[in-house]
Amino acid sequence: MSGPIVEAVQKHPAPEGLIYTYGTAGFRTKADVLDSVLTRVGLVAALRSRSLKGKWIGVMITASHNPPEDNGVKLVEPLGNMLQEEWEVISTDMANKVSAEHVSKFYHDIAAQYRIDLETPARVVVARDTRASGARLLGCVMDGLKAAGAEVKDYGFLTTPQLHYMVRCLNTEDTKDAYGTPTENGYYEKFSHAFKVALKGKKPSGSLTVDCANGVGGPKLTELIKHLPPKEEALEIFVINDNVIKPESLNVECGADYVKTNQRAPPSSKAGAGDRCCSLDGDADRVVYYFKDMNNVFRLLDGDRIATLVASFLGDQIRQAGLADSIKIGVVQTAYANGAATQYVEQHLKLKVDCTPTGVKHLHHAAEKLDVGVYFEANGHGTVIFSDDTLETIAKYEPKSPGQKEALDVVHACIDLINQSVGDALSDMLLVEVVLAHKNWGPQEWLSTYTDLPNRLLKVIVNDRKIFKTTDAERRLVSPEGLQAQIDKEVQKVRQGRSFARASGTEDAVRVYAEAATKAEAEDLARKVAELVKNAGGA
Ligand code: G16
């Protein structure tokens, strides 16, 4: 068998003995073993587009929060959602075919099985983050796309959420659901305009320092700032850790994952007490806030905090607009959500909380079932989505007083400000700033809404993380046998204890989370559970 597909696949042979999996956020591993995967992802993207009659499909080359030597790739559905699970399986199968002939046969088998007409146009949008391996891997995807005869738009460097935005814009262009102009400028204009309108003349207090993880978020935030209202009228932003010329510094001692996991500011931070700071991750789809309090103690305002802040604000505005009876807000979290955050949402905000496994796609699906679904992972990954019915209710609603109109205007502006295709650090950050400005809050007031339970997150390297299998939204282990009972025993020894272990979908490690009434108890519990995991996993 020969032909363009066989030739393209032969050009990028798969290393022997490696098994690839489309995980939490696509394929992600060391960049030097990804060439074959990228070419095959190009083929899958073309098939997926053809299966949807030529709709644009996104390919993002990034390993987000992972170290600089890693890379990865994920596929984006036409409305900017994560790839459908059925196609994750196809992608995994495609990546693991042994020979070029097998790949070509599989490509045609899938086309036959899904009744995909290979003459239908295939349209694919590609972009990448600033990793050194990105250019080479882009070449590998292009070879796959070319072999499959796809039409390609290459946006160069983008944040992951910008790529999602482009995909959604391209597929909704000239329809009643048009999301925006599919250009970088279009992105900046849409979100900066919504920011200005949502602020309603209010000004966030103080400035904001943004750590960009030395990733693609740095240059993109600098561009966005040019479109925002002048700092005298709105917000002064200081950009730090934006060195993309040195890709080996990506996510190193900076960025959202560093701050969340280590519960400390990047060592490079020069912020003083009370200064509001936030950190993006390597591809700018996560954001966490933090500050030093008056005693110089580091205080984290993570994804749970963003969810509670935003849910309470939107709840207030919807109530003030007179829409409380027709629109219900819900919050979606994962097992990593702090117990105090869950309690605050349920008991104080009186909102429903759903818990799903880790991975944006799971949270997104759960949020889609709500009128307004506020979903955030504790690590800062999340957004808010409004159901079609809710959007219609809001669009048709006639306010009955100036107060109702004012609140309704804010709701409209927030809908535009929130990147509803996916969690977007830049859009989330602007939303947080709007809420703080309306509430006239600094980070201390935000922190005072509830007290987090002390917690600890650890990474354990084991021989084979795949033996760690979970149930109950990853809160309990079903394998290795007997391990959960041992964890339960440790949990019972501390006050307000909770702990779980799960295999990471993006790194070769098992993650252990523990929380308890005191810092010492939380750290002790995390250490003990990590030890149990190590023993069971043959570290
Ligand atoms: C990705 C996923 C997130 C997930 C994170 C960690 O984030 O998109 O949903 O929380 O990985 O996942 P895991 O614990 O399975 O390694 P990112 O920002 O790295 O793309």
From TrEMBL:
Residues 458-531 form the Alpha-D-phosphohexomutase C-terminal domain. Mg(2+) binds at S64, D281, D283, D285. Catalyzes the conversion of GlcNAc-6-P into GlcNAc-1-P during the synthesis of uridine diphosphate/UDP-GlcNAc, which is a biosynthetic precursor of chitin and also supplies the amino sugars for N-linked oligosaccharides of glycoproteins. It is an enzyme of class 5 (isomerase). Binds 1 Mg(2+) ion per subunit. This is Phosphoacetylglucosamine mutase. Its cofactor is Mg(2+). The active site is at S64 (phosphoserine intermediate). Residues 183-288, 302-441 form the Phosphoacetylglucosamine mutase AMG1 domain.
